[in-house]
Amino acid sequence: xxxxxxxxxxxxxxxxxxxxxxxxxxxSDWPNRVASRFVRAAGLNWHVQRMxxxxxxxxxxxxxxxxxxxxxxxxxLACRFTVVALDLPGHGFTDLPGPEGLSLSGMANAVSALLRxxxxxxxxxxxxxxxxxxxxxxxLDGRIVPSTLISLNGAFLPLRGLLVRMLSPVTRFLxxxxxxxxxxxxxxxxxxxxxxxxxxxxxxxxxxxIEQYRRLFSTPAHVAGALGMMANWRLDTLERELVRLxxxxxxxxxxxxxxxxxxxxxxxxxxxxxxRLVSLPGLGHLAHEEAPHMxxxxxxxxxxxxxxxxxx
Length: 312
What we know:
alpha/beta
């Protein structure tokens, strides 16, 4: 088996391997590096960040991102909470599992195993895009019982249309070819290509944020994780079961989101009893990176409001 194939299936490779991010080589300037640690759980080596004191708040990023996505907002939240962020399987510095480990249920099971190893019980969970779906799946399966689930442009609904149905099997086929992640990563080395990709999300990021995504997208192992996640993602069952959600669901939806239609949040609000909707004008899919102070305040209010109602 070639080295690229080994990376695609999550095998351990030597530290000098250019196909994956290596902490000693690539982590020297990683955002919030002082909060980082590595933990073994569910057969994977995980990159985890922990900071602050107070009720435990778990942050889960979306497809193609990493802990860097919370660079600005995590320290703000750490003033009031024990903030825990992680690189999902196949993303950032966390090992890449096999295809089943990149499915919605596989991700939910793996994150649950990590929490057991860390001996953490999150009271508040915050998920961006696909991260919100993972957290909802964990809640529905009884793996976590938070008081509040905050969805930032959550990807709860299946993508629809003939083109999507055609592309899904193609993506599954392509992700099985070890050379594909390398080819994608090679094209992502071009900063202009990354700028165009991020512009499609409806968000405007600073140069540092663009460079962070360029670093991730130009790493074959990270690309393999993102493609594998897309190829193995199924949301039909989740959509039907959302009515059973027990934590308070707060749907934060940016009206300039080019990835998840803002109308999806309205649809979810109608389906989930007690769900609340907060709109973000002028922001895109990566709103928490564009306007971290605004989103941190929304998260604070989402957590504080139920406590005030409980005391009244």
